[in-house]
Amino acid sequence: MDTIFFIFSKVVQFCIEPLNWVIIFVLLSLLFLSLRKPHLCKRFLLLALFDLLIVGWLPSSEVFLRALENAVPKTNLSQIADSNIGGIIILGGAIQSGMIGLDRGEVSLQSSAERVTKALELIRKHPNLPFIFSGYSGRLNPKGLI
Q1: Which pLDDT score is estimated for 97?
Q2: 62-119: per-residue pLDDT in tens?
Q3: 113 or 7: which carries more pLDDT confidence?
Q4: Which residues, including other chains, have CB under 8 Å from residue 105's CB and lie 6 or more apart?
Q5: Which of 5, 36, 65, 95 is the most buried (most CB within 10 A)?
């Protein structure tokens, strides 16, 4: 049952990614072009261009992310009292799994490396606290160390 939810989450994630809709719109326009319906072909190509313009070129996604991040004030790690911390949860998604890491016996960090580096800073500062690494590979067939 877990596998079904995992696959379903990947399908939903694909469908809600705005740049994936560019691919879908282009494929639909090619389908309507082969069916000799040029008016529908043009509409889907315009939708693809509009989607690419809004999501891929204009900083629209950056505006929404910045507003979301600014809603919560940044906390300085040195100002947190030791008694206020019960444990450390390290979010997954920062470690790259793959064949290169497997061949070399190493761990590769992705662009979310600050998740691991900040967690290591906290673990070093509070060595007696329990910590949990969450997540696993986001692939259907994981390969490598993770």
Answers
A1: 59
A2: 777 788 888 888 877 777 777 777 888 887 766 665 565 556 666 666 667 777 788 8
A3: 7
A4: none
A5: 95
Q: Is 141's pLDDT higher than 80?
A: no
Strand pairing class (95-96; 108-109): antiparallel
- Report the distance separating Cα 146 and Cα 144, nearest Å: 6
* Token pair belonging to 22: 């560019």
Please name the residue ranges forming H helices in 17-132: 18-34, 38-51, 60-70, 99-104, 114-125
Distance separating the N- and C-terminal Cα atoms of the chain: 21
- Looking at the whole model, is its pTM more than 0.85? no
Q: For residue 16, what are its two tokens?
A: 């809600």
- Give, in order, the Cα–Cα distances in Å from 49 to each of 19, 41, 44, 45, 60: 11, 12, 9, 6, 15
Alpha-carbon distance values, 23 to 17, 30, 53, 97, 139 (Å):
11, 11, 14, 26, 20
